[in-house]
Amino acid sequence: MMLLELFKTFFIIGFISFGGGYATIPIIEMEVTAHQWMTTEEFTDIIGIAGMSPGPIATNCAVFVGYQTAGFAGAVASTAGVILPSLIVILILAVFFYRANKNPIVQSAFYGLRPIIVSLIVYAAIKFAFSSGMVTTLSNESFSLLLIFIFSLLALTKFHLHPAVVIILSGLAGVALYT
Amino acid sequence: MNKKWKLLAEIFFTFFKIGPVTFGGGYAMIPLIEKEVVTKKKWMQTNDITDVVALAGSAPGAMAINSATFVGYRIAGVSGAIAAMIGILLPTFLIVVGLSIFYLYFNDNPKIEAAFHGIGPAVVALICLAAYKLAPTAIIDKTTLVIASIAVLLLFFLHIHPVVMILGGIAAGICLVKIRTWLGYKTKLDGLKQKVG
């Protein structure tokens, strides 16, 4: 039952996707490769497209993985899976613990949780730096990939270019350099 | 009954309109929600938005979807929450399905392959940016710096599953703060100073 498996996997991912964005990436990557739905390289492509699309990156990845694995029904299954935990937790919080964020236990839980979220994002960066071919023995290719990385970082931080623009520009650089 | 459906449809379309604009998601869309929900529709008041941000941030999942869901709940209960959630999700869902179809057809094309080869490092840059933006609210003292550093090493060298890391972080946070309180130290728990509205 592929659809059920997609739903179940993304349901679990949804529950632990604190911070929403890029912290969820290594979790999805681990699950997707463990199920052999995709390779790490294919998954890097998907983050590129997910980062270019509007909407939250984790949800976009879910739609993508679902569609690639089991078509439109797969996309619906994985998306429903990833957002259902948010709905459940929000409703519980809204009904019972309206002031949950003022609770000292919740606050100290987040005190420990937030650095973990940062570490997950850093881990994702290291992992994809390896799979992108940018950190290998120095060659023309790895050097040019490193340059794309540096220019992208500058464009994002110094010039505040929109992420979608940075992805499109680096894609064009890829076409120019590697065909 | 009819009135209820009309309200749900209105909630759905309000968030449907916000959906495609939520590029990058996160806190960027809060002012947009405020404009629609407080200024235009008068469903909520400005100081309610602070609750929205706090609650959406403490639930798992994306900020944008969580905020919409909570606002929907406040306006029209559980069915309102579902209407708002589907509303904000549907546009991006359809866009990403469209892009998936495109990817499925063209990922063997050598030009597209080359483009993705170039996009790889840009993705790494985007992820670095996300960490850089989040770090000041998460790494607020020596303890949190140590937690983050140990976590990266555990993930990288021992391949500990992220679920274990997240549960471990929650446990470590609660224990460390308790121990410190017993020892008579006070822990500043929040590095986050959000400005909303």
Order of helices and strands of chain A: HHHHHHH
Overall residue-averaged pLDDT value of chain A: 86
Shape estimate of chain A: globular
Count of structural domains of chain A: 2
Pair with the most extensive interface? A-B, 104 and 97 residues
Residues in helices of chain B, as a percent range: over 70%
User: In sequence order, what are the helices and strands of chain B, one letter per element?
Assistant: HHHHHHH
How many structural domains in the coordinates of chain B?
3
Q: Overall mean pLDDT score of chain B?
A: 83
- Beta content of chain A: under 5%
SS strand fraction of chain B:
under 5%
Largest sheet of chain B: none
Number of strands of chain B: 0
- Cα gyration radius of chain B (Å): 21 Å
Uncertain spans of chain B, ≥5 residues at pLDDT below 50?
Answer: 193-197
* Biggest β-sheet description of chain A: none
The rounded distance between the terminal residues' Cα atoms of chain A is 40 Å
Number of contiguous helices of chain B: 7
Task: Work out the radius of gyration of chain A.
Answer: 18 Å
Q: Structural class, from helix and strand content of chain B?
A: mainly alpha
Helical residues, percent of chain A: over 70%
Main location (chain B): membrane
Subcellular location (chain B): Cell membrane
Organism (chain B): Pseudobacillus wudalianchiensis
Transmembrane segments (chain B): 12-33, 53-73, 80-106, 112-132, 166-185
